[in-house]
């Protein structure tokens, strides 16, 4: 690995998703911005993923292939290996919407920024475009609504990037963002009004609705108090009832919150 510090560390977590990893690889290889390191954390796949990783060592800066304790444990391994100024997480099957995205993001005036985020485009399981999802404004209090911006569009300075708490088997990403925003000033935040990521539906969290809700409530109470929970009840009802209805009916073309 080069001793030159890269601007960006991109961490990709994968487990038995060779085709998804290939899609992510193709997306990163096409980027006009090349000042990044790609770190792949494989959970010990048996579908040829490990062999693919080893054969793509010109793009992959570092990798681990071993069993882990879940997606957030794997992400922590990626954070430990990262050496860039900034870090982002792009899981297997997720891609950037166009080859110039990273170049655009890092051409902005970000010298005094700590956290960057943008919009995303949702894809179905087959890769067909479903809908554009605009991020809601993020702040220390608005994040109590849930993941109102796509995790894969978020870039944070490595120097302030916390580890994911392994006790949260779901909502680990929400807790992670709450950790960041605990000490983040509004002036350090940059929102870019672009769709930067194609995100495939049907991930781990999509299949854990009850546990998501239970953990979400717990996070609000423990961090912000019971009054914040009362204020968020209408939003929580819309969010999780809407997710349940969409899953039950197989609808992905609209949202309830």
Note the topology:
Layout lengths: L7 E7 L3 H12 L6 E7 L6 H7 L4 E6 L5 H11 L4 E4 L5 E2 L4 H5 L9 E9 L5 E5 L21 E3 L14 H10 L7 E12 L8 H16 L1 H24 L8
Parallel strand pairs: 1-2, 1-4, 2-3, 6-9
Antiparallel strand pairs: 4-8, 5-9, 6-7, 6-8
Helix pairs in contact: 6-7
Description:
It contains seven helices and nine strands; from the N terminus they run E-H-E-H-E-H-E-E-H-E-E-E-H-E-H-H. Strands 1, 2, 3, 4, 5, 6, 7, 8 and 9 form a nine-stranded mixed β-sheet that branches. The longest helix is centred in the C-terminal third of the chain and has 24 residues, at 226-249. Helix 6 runs antiparallel to helix 7 (226-249). The mean pLDDT is 92. The chain has 257 residues and is α/β, with parallel strands linked by helices.
Question: What would a concise description of this structure say?
Answer:
The chain has seven helices and nine strands.
Mean pLDDT over the full residue set: 92
Structural class: alpha/beta
pLDDT < 50 stretches: none
What is the first-to-last residue Cα distance? Answer: 44 Å
What's the number of extended β-strand segments? 9
Radius of gyration: 18 Å
Counting H and I runs of at least 4 residues, what is the number of helices? 7
Order of helices and strands: EHEHEHEEHEEEHEHH
Helical coverage, percent range: 25-40%
For the largest beta-sheet, the strand count, sense and barrel status come to: 9 strands, mixed
β-strand percent reads 15-25%
User: Which descriptor suits the 3D outline?
Assistant: globular
């Amino acid at each position: 690995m080069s001793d030159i510090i890269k601007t960006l560390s991109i961490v990709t977590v994968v487990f038995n998703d060779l085709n998804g990893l290939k899609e992510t690889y193709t997306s990163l290889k096409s980027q006009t911005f090349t000042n990044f390191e790609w770190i792949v954390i494989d959970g010990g796949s048996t579908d040829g993923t490990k062999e693919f990783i080893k054969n793509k060592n010109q793009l992959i800066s570092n990798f681990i292939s071993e069993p882990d304790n879940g997606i957030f444990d794997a992400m922590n391994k990626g954070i430990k290996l990262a050496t860039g100024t900034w870090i982002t997480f792009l899981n297997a099957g997720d891609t950037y919407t166009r080859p110039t995205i990273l170049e655009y993001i890092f051409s902005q005036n970000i010298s005094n920024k700590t956290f960057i985020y943008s919009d995303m485009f949702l894809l179905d399981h087959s890769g067909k475009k479903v809908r554009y999802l605009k991020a809601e404004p993020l702040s220390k209090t608005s994040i109590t609504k849930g993941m109102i911006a796509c995790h894969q569009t978020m870039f944070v300075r490595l120097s302030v990037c916390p580890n994911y708490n392994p006790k949260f088997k779901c909502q680990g990403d929400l807790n992670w963002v709450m950790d960041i925003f605990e000490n983040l000033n509004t002036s350090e935040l940059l929102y870019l009004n672009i769709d930067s990521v194609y995100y495939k539906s049907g991930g781990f969290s999509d299949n854990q609705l009850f546990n998501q809700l239970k953990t979400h409530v717990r996070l609000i109470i423990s961090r912000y108090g019971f009054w914040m929970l009362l204020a968020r009840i209408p939003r929580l009802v819309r969010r999780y009832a809407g997710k349940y209805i969409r899953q039950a009916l197989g609808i992905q073309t609209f949202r309830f919150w």
